[in-house]
Amino acid sequence: MLWLKGCPKCKGELTDNKDPFGYYVYCVQCGYQLNEAQIGKLWTHSLDRTAGKPPARPQPQQQDSDWATVYYE
User: Fold this and answer.
1) What pLDDT score was predicted for residue 39?
2) What are the residues facing 51 on neighbouring strands?
3) C-alpha distances in angstroms, 52 versus 25, 47, 67?
4) Cut 0.90: pTM above it
5) Closest among 42, 29, 38 to 1, alpha carbons compared
6) Per-residue pLDDT tens over the stretch 24-68
7) What is the tally of helices (H) and strands (E) in the chain?
């Protein structure tokens, strides 16, 4: 996963990786590596932004008797 402007040190892009020692998140630009507390906060913030939001679907606004339902945004 990639977090844009998520680095607390340089505001660069963060990415995650896994190696034999475990899971870690680091900055692509400066190499800063987040600790476990920062990773937990990052994941919680990422999940909170997308949780509970269904995908937006257009709602019918007008019905035309000769044609199918007309959608307007």
Assistant:
1) 86
2) none
3) 25, 10, 34
4) no
5) 42
6) 999 999 999 999 888 888 877 776 665 555 555 555 555 555 555
7) 1, 5
| Segment (H or E) for 61 | strand 60-62
CA distance 19 to 47: 24
- Per-domain residue ranges of the chain: 2-71
Measured CA to CA in angstroms, residue 68 lies from 47, 56, 64, 71 at distances of 38, 20, 7, 9
* Half-sphere exposure at residue 23, Cβ-oriented, CA atoms within 13 angstroms: 9
Which H or E run includes 41? helix 36-50
Q: Which helix (H) or strand (E) holds 70?
A: strand 70-71
**Could you tell me which of 36, 15, 37, 35 has the C-alpha nearest to residue 26?**
15
Look at residue 24 and give its three-state secondary structure: strand
